Amino acid sequence: MPMTNDYFKYYKSKQLLLLIVYFTTLFLWVKSHWGLALSITASLGFLFWAIDKFLWKYKPFKWLFWIDDFSGRYDGVLKYCYRDEDGVLQSGERRLIKTIHQTGSKICVTSFIIQPDGTKSSESINRGMHVEKTEDGRHFRLIYVYLNDGNTSQRLSPHYGTEVIKFIRTKDTKMLSGRYFTEREPYQTKGEFSDLKWVSDDLNHEY
Q1: Are 28 and 126 within one domain?
Q2: What's the whole-model pTM score?
Q3: Which of 2, 31, 124, 141 is 20–30 Å from 95 (CA)?
Q4: Total tally of structural domains belonging to the chain
Q5: pLDDT in tens, 150-185
């Protein structure tokens, strides 16, 4: 399993070290007492693969991580503001859907809006990800650049943008709020969203 330089960036360093020491000791004990031909490197590699793909969100493995479980589909409203080709300020609201696919080492955010006629806009997909706790230490903030390939039929040009998301967990649900801005030509666009509520773990959708 290939590991990038930032593969363990969401792990707690102390817990990660304890895990490696514990399982290395366990593997050595099994080899010496049962005579099994186990490779410590391969065994640890398989363990971290399983944690990364499946076990990261479940106890006791979730305690290895300092971030929360952001994954799922969120549904809400986007308030946008931009200048059209004639320089006239346009604003309004659209239904916004975000899906967050998360593993122990990677977070992928996909966003799109639903047009008034029910069609789906072009998707925005993050490039890179920075996660930090909010100043009060109670919530999380996700900051990233995203790429949108545009949509010629909707006269939307390809562009990069930046988004800042605040993640809030309550007793009953998970919510997102935040803002964005883009470098779309000929005028920059911007907007904000609030109270995007988690609706499902199913990242498939009807659009």
Answers
A1: no
A2: 0.89
A3: 141
A4: 2
A5: 766 656 677 899 999 999 998 889 999 999 999 777
